[in-house]
Amino acid sequence: MKKTFAILLILTLFLVSCTAPSKKPIQMQSKTSSIFDTANIENIKITVDDCNVRSGKGTNFPVVAKLKKGDIVDVIGKFGNWYVVKLPNNKVGCVASDNAKPVVVENEEKQVKEVYRLTDEEQRMVTLINNERIKRNLKPLQVDKELTRVARIKSQDMEKNDYFSHYSPTYGSPFDMMKSFGIKFLAAGENIAANRSIENAHNSFMNSKGHRDNILNPNFTHIGVGIEKSSKYGNLITEMFISKPK
Hints:
CATH 3.40.33.10; single chain; 30% strand; SH3 type barrels; alpha+beta
């Protein structure tokens, strides 16, 4: 028997909105999780000489980077006493709130956020998905930059913490994670894969009913794809689908 070189692990999880028996359907809208504080904190300044950046929100997680006193980093969110920060190399880590102070933005006008451009591989996956939808007379999904950011963070989290699951030890379920990052949806789904080939991962999704249902769901309107390189699998792929409230 030939030895298999590519390992594909795929799971699917799907959450739909509920309606109550009434004249008009009740739309279920998500709210920002109470453990995630966006407030007006966009940056933090490190206040200790040697600050550990950990892979999760706790001292039991390994140190993945170091920051120096005076360093300023972008804040993605806040979980309890831990800031989730974006590092200069675009990786994500957690900093204890005792080691930093917020840089408060007094101007209430929102600054224009950086547009998350898709990598070539992420764009290829989106194209494969939308081609499947177009062939079946379904509307192509629109790429959502914030959902793309969350999908990338999920793939990075799986690589850093060496797991393959819809449930993250850092962020919880994909739906809790979306809500924590301020993503609003009426319905949502997630596909994850570990494969050295983007095309092979997509073909495996299409050969699995649960994953195919997410890709071809006519109610979904937007998508975010995040791909992280993995020494073990080649690529860790996260596809997040949502139906946006109107």
